[in-house]
Design goal:
The structure is a single chain. The chain starts with a helix and ends with a helix. The longest helix is centred in the last third of the chain and has 44 residues. The protein contains 13 helices and 13 strands. α2 packs antiparallel against α9, α2 packs across α11 and α9 runs parallel beside α12. By secondary structure, it is of the alpha+beta class. 37% of the residues are buried.
Amino acid sequence: MNLLQSFKMAVATIRINKVRSFLTMLGIIIGVTSVIGLVSVMQGYNADITQYYEKMGVNKISVSLTMYNFSDSVKMYDKLYEYVNKDLSGLASGVSPAMKTSGTIQYGSGTIEDTSTVYLGNEQFSLCNNYDLKEGRDISYMDVQSANHVCVIGSYIVQELFGYKNPIGETIYFNSLPLKVVGVYYQKDGTTESSMDDAIVMPYTLNKEVLGTVAVSAYTVKSVDATSMTALYTKLNAFLDAKIDDTMGKFKLTNENTEMEASDDETASLSLVLGAVASIALLVGGIGIMNIMLVTVTERTREIGIRKAIGATRKAIITQFLIESGMLSALGGIIGIIFGFIITLIVGKAMYDMILLPMAWITCASFAFSIAIGIGFGLYPAIKASGLQPVVALRAD
């Protein structure tokens, strides 16, 4: 008997026992669906986290300073600004103070209470924090030097306070401090309350009026690319270590990419764990296939005896039963992949508001594993069937 005839017989057997075949495949279907679904959910989570970091701006180094003398803090900003923009111009794109606070924002009769983040930065703040200007202008060097009462606002502030009115040139109030709106940022975080679009940026030199201090305690340094991060971190650390001793204060550097990379590693590990747990369902499905194939061998004992009596070899009998078990698991795998795709699309839209599709390698690996499970667990029944003696088999009812 050739392979084509074996496949035809396997299809006929599955069609004759539709309900039993479906129940046999159910374990494989559940297993493949679980593997694809769980891993894809983690894939979506990882994409969502990565997207969040990209919105915040990647390739950044945070600098935290604690200076014992306020005047030293102000001088340190000037030194760091010059060092980054001149000596590190090949490694860094810019540097900006990164102080922030919150409070009440008002325009006319409109008010936003304590949800907005108010940043104090310089003319390089937008570059360092991945904000793109939509209209108007950004904070300028002169605004910083003159401590001008100006600001650039996010899309949520525009939506809540101005509606369809052009905000450029209008004056808003932050805790009674008047600020002229000179620019508007593009939306980058859904234009919702407490999002990155719910933000105002003003010159850091207003810190005395806003924060009650002239000290500058936090900075963001933007690297030109990811490959320059290590060299930039090393040079910044050496520079600050040379400028700040124990009598003046202390400093701390944080590579912002490290947190994102740690999150990626954690998600990858969790995906493997969840995939392994879901694979247990595939093993259960394989046991179900073995059980049914053993029943099939018992039911078809006489048929096996007749085939062996007319010359069928052990290899032919094994091949026939392995094709049947492999086909059952393959069909289960295909149905499981379809369900996995559907679940992934639904979860991706509901949880992450994105079109999420399973990774190709997960899909292929799940399908290959399901077939391997079917053949592996079908091997024992196939060998048992091929070992039946024709005389004994022909006596079976």
